[in-house]
Design a protein that fits this description.
heterodimer, A: 81 residues, alpha+beta, two-stranded antiparallel ribbon, 6 helices, globular, B: 168 residues, mainly alpha, 5 helices
C-alpha cells in the first residue's frame, strides 16, 4: 500500500488547456467553464494545475475542445522527485 | 476573487460577529456579577438565543450579499438595452453561482476541519469537567469550539480556493 502511494506521488496530471483555448479562437475561461458545466474558478484551478479534475470533468473539458482526452490531459512524472 | 470565496467570507464575517457578540454579552454579564455561579439556565438560554441570531444573521447577510452581487453584475452589464439586461444578469448570475465538483471537494475537506475542531472542543470540555471545572465551563468550551470550528471551516475553504486542492 505504501509502495503504491509512493509511486502515485511521483506523478502529476498536466494539461494543455491554455494552448487549446488559444487555438480555439482565444476561447475565454468563462466560455470553457460554461461548455464544461463548471465555474470559471474551477477552470482557472485546472488550467493552473492546482486541481486535478475527475475523469468525468476531464472528458467534458476535452469534449468542449472536440478532442480526445489524451490530447488535453497528460500524466507525467514530476521533475523534482 | 471568486463567488465562492466571497460567499465564504460573508459567512465568516457573520460567524465572527456572532462569536464577538456572544463573548461581549455573556462574559460581560458574568464578569459584572449579574449571573450566579453555576446558573446553567442563563447559559443555555443565551446559547440558544445566539444560535438563533447566528442562523438568521447569516441568512440575512447572504441575502444582502446576493443583492450586492446582482447590483454589481447589473452595473457591468448596463451597456446593453433594458430588455436584454434582466436575461444577461440572470445568465451571468447562474454562471457565477454554479457549485461544481471542486466546490464540493473543498466543502468536504473544510467541513472535516470544522468537525475535528468541534470534536476536540467536546473532548476538551469533558476533560475540563473531569479536572474539576464547572459544567458552565464545559458548556462554554463546547459552544465556542463549534463557533471556532465553523470559522476555521471558512478559513480552510479560502485556503483551498487560493492554493488549490487535490482529491488524493
Amino acid at each position: 500500500m505504501e509502495r503504491v502511494s509512493a509511486v502515485a506521488k511521483k506523478f502529476e496530471v498536466t494539461n494543455n488547456i491554455r494552448t487549446l483555448r488559444f487555438f480555439a479562437s482565444e476561447m475565454t475561461q468563462q466560455e470553457l467553464a460554461e461548455k464544461a458545466g463548471v465555474s470559471r474558478q474551477t477552470v482557472i484551478a485546472v488550467e493552473a494545475g492546482k486541481y486535478s479534475p475527475t475523469l468525468e470533468l476531464a472528458f467534458r473539458i476535452a469534449d468542449a475542445f472536440g478532442l480526445p482526452i489524451t490530447e488535453v490531459f497528460g500524466y507525467k512524472a514530476k521533475e523534482n522527485t | 476573487m471568486s463567488y465562492q470565496s466571497k460567499k465564504t467570507i460573508t459567512s465568516m464575517v457573520g460567524g465572527a460577529l456572532v462569536l464577538a457578540a456572544y463573548c461581549i454579552y455573556a462574559f460581560g454579564r458574568y464578569s459584572s456579577g449579574a449571573i450566579a455561579e453555576g446558573n446553567l439556565k442563563f447559559w443555555a438560554g443565551t446559547m440558544l438565543v445566539f444560535i438563533g441570531i447566528g442562523i438568521v444573521g447569516i441568512i440575512l447577510l447572504q441575502i444582502v450579499f446576493h443583492i450586492a452581487l446582482s447590483i454589481g453584475i447589473a452595473v457591468k452589464e448596463r451597456a446593453c438595452d433594458e430588455k436584454e439586461i434582466d436575461k444577461r444578469i440572470e445568465a451571468t448570475l447562474e454562471a457565477t453561482v454554479i457549485e461544481d465538483e471542486m466546490d464540493k471537494l473543498i466543502e468536504l475537506k473544510s467541513s472535516q476541519i470544522g468537525f475535528v475542531l468541534a470534536g476536540v472542543g467536546f473532548v476538551g470540555a469533558l476533560i475540563l469537567v473531569v479536572l474539576g471545572h464547572s459544567t458552565v465551563v464545559m458548556l462554554n468550551v463546547m459552544y465556542l469550539s463549534f463557533l471556532v470550528g465553523s470559522l476555521m471551516e471558512g478559513a480552510t475553504s479560502l485556503y483551498f480556493y487560493g492554493k488549490g486542492v487535490s482529491s488524493g
